[in-house]
Amino acid sequence: MIDKKKTRKELETNFKKQVFIDAAIKVFAAQGFQKTSIEMIASETGYAAGTIYNYFKSKEELYGAALNYIGNTFLESLKAAIGGIKDPFEKLRQFVIFKFNFGIKNIDFIRVIFSEETTFEWHLKKESRISSRTHIYNKVMEIELSIIKDCQKAGKLQKGEPALLTTLLDSFFDGYFLYRLKNNQKELITKEIGKIFEYFIKGFGTER
To answer: How far is Cα 17 from Cα 140, in angstroms, rounded to an integer?
Structure first.
């Protein structure tokens, strides 16, 4: 027999958690982690600050939940975006384009992640949060590695160590994105996505 009362309670809990997570993402993106308070997030939702504490023990825990939500959304959306593409080289291209477009869409929150997260005391202590984020990152890298291997099998990329090529590809594009982010040049990212993909694939040298 299904406990309908418990089910309703669970649904209400999940709904409120998502409300607080959505508000937290918005406020963290606008104010940064250090300047954000639970009271500010509560004001965004219309709930009292005490209500948030019924679901999240601290601002750090709420930040972790927001980070996990962004990561899981990225992973699920990525799979949907490239899952139906048969050609491995085109799948690799769309993988890169998706990463950039997702980054641009969530650029303010991503700026918080890269500019402030490493200073958080909780980041060093809350191993469960680190493990969750690492799990999402590893899943994305597994997808990328699989695409790289398929490209090599199809003769679209040079033979070599696929894991190393995956790391280089990820570092190349992430480094570019962070450089543009640091210099407030997100408008250039959209214009240059295709060009820098070609640079990476073809290489920078003139001799072959």
So the answer is: 25
Count of structural domains, the chain: 1
Predicted structure pTM score: 0.80
In sequence order, what are the residues at sequence separation of 6 or more whose Cβ sits closer than 8 angstroms to the Cβ of residue 150?
A: 88, 91
Q: At what angle do helices 59-82 and 4-31 cross, to 10 degrees?
A: 100
First to last CA, the chain: 70
Q: Examine residue 53 and state whether it is found in any structural domain, yes or no.
A: no
Q: Provide the token pair at 36.
A: 């954000």
Condensed to tens digits (0 to 9), the pLDDT of residues 96-130 reads 999 999 988 888 888 777 766 555 544 545 544 55
Q: Which CATH number do you get for residue 106?
A: 1.10.357.10
Q: Between the CA of residue 76 and those of 72, 82, 118, 160, 201, what are the distances in Å?
A: 6, 10, 26, 29, 26
Q: Distance between CA atoms of 53 and 34, rounded to whole angstroms?
A: 18
In a domain, 37, yes or no: no
Domain that holds residue 115: 58-202
7 is a domain residue: no
